Amino acid sequence: MMVEPDDADLARFLDEDPGGPVVMLNLLRFAEGGFEAYREYSRHMRNTFLPRYGAEVVYAGSGSTVLVAEDGRSWDAVVVVRYPDRAAFGRMVADPEYLAITHLRTEALSETVLQATSPWR
Length: 121
Description:
The protein is α+β, with helices and mostly antiparallel strands. The chain has helices at 7-15, 34-52, 86-94, 96-99, 102-108; strands spanning 22-30, 56-62, 77-83, 109-117.
C-alpha cells in the first residue's frame, strides 16, 4: 500500500488547485511498532517543515470508539494540517531535507489516507 503521493497524484493535486489555503486530512494506521517512527517524523515536521512552509497542525489525536465503520476499518490516528496553499505543500514534499525523512513515515504506516479538503462556501 502506498503511503506517499506519487508524481501523478501530486501533479493532479496542484492542477486542481482552487486557490487559497488547503487543509489536509491524514488518516493513519500504524504498522506494528510504527508509532515511534511516526513520532520522530512528527517531530521533524513540527520543528522544521511546517514552520518553513507556513503550515500548522489544526488537530492531531488517537483514534477512539468507532461508531460507524466496517470491522477492521478504524484508524489509529487522525492529523489535520493547514497549508497556506497547495503550492506550499508541493514545495515541502519536493524539499530534499523532507525527502530524507519520508522513510520514517513510510516505515510507520501500514495504511493511510491523505486527502486535500476545500472549505464549503
